[in-house]
Design a protein that fits this description.
alpha/beta, Rossmann fold, N-(1-d-carboxylethyl)-l-norvaline Dehydrogenase, domain 2, 2 domains, eight-stranded mixed sheet, 15 helices, about 10% strand, globular, binds NADPH dihydro-nicotinamide-adenine-dinucleotide phosphate, binds 1,3-dihydroxyacetonephosphate, glycerol-3-phosphate dehydrogenase (NADP+) activity
Length: about 350
């Protein structure tokens, strides 16, 4: 049954792309007033006139209580909850414009799955920097916007230390096709959603190259091992990756051509350049920048991440993917689950020259 929600003010959503639009509309479908902010005044007019965001989510009628606006103050002032669906490269700059209209009781919920280039910050860390004392939540999970728009049964995670915030977001978003699970591990939930984009690029590439289902399964499982290793090195709890925001999101993005990161990988696998792959997409694919940032961080901290290292060589230096894959296959043999058998307890030489990765 749909959760009944009460309200005294409106909900704001910043970012009028695919995900911002479906989040805004899911709340508006409950009859609550929602202000969806975007920078493009012409698109605002088009959306309010046609009741559809034709650029990002065509064929998705918008509920009557959703109002698009290009006026950031109007969107924010008096909002009970503010969802932030702004790509990571613009997240801090939009937040800096917003901060003047924010008040301490408002809940700020990031839906963005990326890493800031200069600081290696996740979005909740940027919110904490820019809005000290803010009530912060992170929404993440296997949530392809275009499937939500078709009302496919979907689940997500709201992560926050703030219990009242968690229950309010569960109430606001819950519907017969959308379930919201709770977590207190903000960093783990956010890290899972961010890291999986890297492996979705690899999965798309392997699909374009005609690799089989064994290969895809190996890729996804070793990706989970690698993500967990990275999480532990960053002080995060790898158990969170067993949930929707970890393995759940990894599965959907590594399997679906609706994922933009998968599509970038697919285009690269077809022989397109990175610039071509990204420009044909016309939407944000966070995994490209995340790959760069995580590769640098793993090198700096000496974290064993052979998939990240290999993919980086393919995407950024043009190394042939079959050659990189072959060298990984002949690398030293390793442990399946290193929480069961530590990696350094089982290194056995592989079938060929060992790699330093
Ligand atoms: N789409 C999905 O399925 C999901 C996406 N996410 C995450 O949500 C975040 C947003 O993704 P999504 O909505 O899909 O992205 P889209 O590419 O669909 O849209 C991006 C939106 O951000 C706006 N934008 C870009 N730069 C700026 C800026 N400098 N100032 C203001 N607005 C800006 C764009 O405006 P303009 O049109 O004017 O360029 C556009 O409205 C990403 O981090 C993504 O990982 C999370 C879950 C699912
Ligand atoms: O995060 C997503 C699904 O959960 C969306 O993935 P893409 O950004 O690759 O489309």
């Amino acid at each position: 049954m749909e959760t009944q929600v009460t309200h005294t003010s409106h909900i704001a959503v910043l970012g009028g792309g695919s995900f911002g639009t479906v989040i805004a509309n899911m709340v508006a479908e409950k009859g609550l007033p929602v202000r969806l902010w975007m920078r493009d005044a012409e698109r605002v007019e088009q959306i309010n006139r046609e009741r559809c965001n034709t650029r990002y989510v065509p064929d998705y009628p918008l509920a009557a209580s959703l109002e698009a606006t290009a006026d950031l103050s109007y969107a924010l002032k008096g909002a009970e909850v503010v969802f932030l669906s702004i790509p990571s490269h613009a997240f801090r700059s939009v937040l800096r414009q917003a901060v003047i209209d924010l008040t301490p009781e408002q809940m700020l919920i990031s839906t963005t799955k990326g890493i800031e280039t200069e600081s290696f910050s996740l979005m909740s860390e940027i919110i904490a920097d820019e809005v000290p004392g803010a009530r912060i939540g992170v929404l993440s999970g296997p949530n392809l916007a275009k499937e939500i728009a078709r009302r496919q049964l979907t689940a997500t995670v709201i992560a926050s230390q703030d219990e009242a915030l968690r229950s309010r977001i569960q109430q606001l978003l819950h519907s017969p096709y959308f379930r919201v699970y709770a977590s207190t591990d903000t960093y783990g939930v956010e890290l899972g959603g961010t890291l999986k984009n890297i492996y979705a690029i690899a999965a798309g590439m392997s699909a374009a190259l005609g690799m089989g289902e064994n290969t895809r399964s190996m890729l996804m499982t070793r990706a989970l091992a690698e993500m967990s290793r990275f999480a532990v090195s960053m002080g995060a709890n790898p158990m969170t990756f067993l949930g929707l925001a970890g393995v759940g999101d990894l599965i959907v993005t590594c399997m679906s051509p609706l994922s933009r990161n998968y599509r970038v990988g697919y285009a690269l696998g077809q022989g397109k350049t990175l610039d071509e792959a990204v420009s044909v997409l016309g939407e944000v694919a966070e995994g490209v920048n995340t790959l760069h940032q995580v590769r640098d961080k793993a090198s700096e901290m000496n974290i064993y991440m052979p998939l990240v290292m290999g993919l980086y060589e393919v995407v950024f230096t043009g190394a042939p993917v079959t050659e990189v894959a072959r060298s990984m296959m002949v690398n030293v043999q390793s442990s399946d689950v290193e929480f069961v058998l530590p990696r350094d307890a089982c290194a056995v030489s592989g079938a060929g020259p060992s790699s330093s990765q």
